[in-house]
């Protein structure tokens, strides 16, 4: 199991388009991927779940990945937060 914290640096947070892109990224992997914010944990492959977190600029979220391809999944999610999310 991999657990890593990320800060949201884009102005709109994890809403609409960024949330959809996160779900697309997470859905490529067999591992279970969850997002935790303020003691609320949701399925990272569910657009509705991700949107209910209300993650905004400056918020910190914890990504929890557990499964056979967790190493590849965390690399893709790190790229999402560190590169793709900043450009949205």
Automatic annotation (TrEMBL):
<comment type="function">
    <text>General (non sugar-specific) component of the phosphoenolpyruvate-dependent sugar phosphotransferase system (sugar PTS). This major carbohydrate active-transport system catalyzes the phosphorylation of incoming sugar substrates concomitantly with their translocation across the cell membrane. The phosphoryl group from phosphoenolpyruvate (PEP) is transferred to the phosphoryl carrier protein HPr by enzyme I. Phospho-HPr then transfers it to the PTS EIIA domain.</text>
</comment>
<keyword id="KW-0598">Phosphotransferase system</keyword>
<dbReference type="Pfam" id="PF00381">
    <property type="entry name" value="PTS-HPr"/>
</dbReference>
<dbReference type="InterPro" id="IPR000032">
    <property type="entry name" value="HPr-like"/>
</dbReference>
<dbReference type="InterPro" id="IPR050399">
    <property type="entry name" value="HPr"/>
</dbReference>
<protein>
    <recommendedName>
        <fullName>Phosphocarrier protein HPr</fullName>
    </recommendedName>
</protein>
<feature type="domain" description="HPr">
    <location>
        <begin position="1"/>
        <end position="88"/>
    </location>
</feature>
<keyword id="KW-0963">Cytoplasm</keyword>
<dbReference type="InterPro" id="IPR001020">
    <property type="entry name" value="PTS_HPr_His_P_site"/>
</dbReference>
<dbReference type="InterPro" id="IPR035895">
    <property type="entry name" value="HPr-like_sf"/>
</dbReference>
